[in-house]
Amino acid sequence: MDYNTQRKHLVLPEYGRHVQQMVDQLLEVEDIDNRNRMAKSIIAVMGNMNPHLRDINDFKHKLWDHLHVMANFNLEIESPYPKPEASVIYEKPKSVPYPSQPIKYKHYGRSISMMIDEAIAMEPGEQKEALTSLIVNHMKKSYLIWNKDSVSDEDIIRDIKELSDGKLTLPPDFKFNEVRDNSPVHKPRKKYQPRKK
Prior knowledge:
Layout: H1 16-28, H2 32-49, H3 59-70, H4 86-89, H5 110-121, H6 126-146, H7 153-163
């Protein structure tokens, strides 16, 4: 018996063993014209295996790159796209730096402090007041996620003054939006009663 575990490792398993065998055969073809013709046929087969991806930009380019990867970058053909470099394909992604500055109030999150910084940088006027009002209402909603019992308006006003170092003030006619509790209500199930005959 010929088991898959005993066979050659598949570089791109999404195309299956048959396509890999076609690529292996392609590497043995010496005539450049036949090799180019066979490569185009293999690309057509690979494209037919994923018809839902045809609308993606550079779909053909991706297929040609996959052909070179399956051939272990040893394929010499006339490709419509430049041959990819193995070092570029297998390059490890750069590590994403994690924000190191601490969040003062974690229940508000980092986005609130970023919005506060934007509001501080704005010129005084209606837009700044509107943004400040939105931020304060969003702060109350965020706080209510963590503490449904005791969130007073005075706490929110104190927190925005502290987070903005006193640079943001609420308009004199400001009122908090009514915040609804959207948590699901669990109703007790009715007791089963058999049908009367």
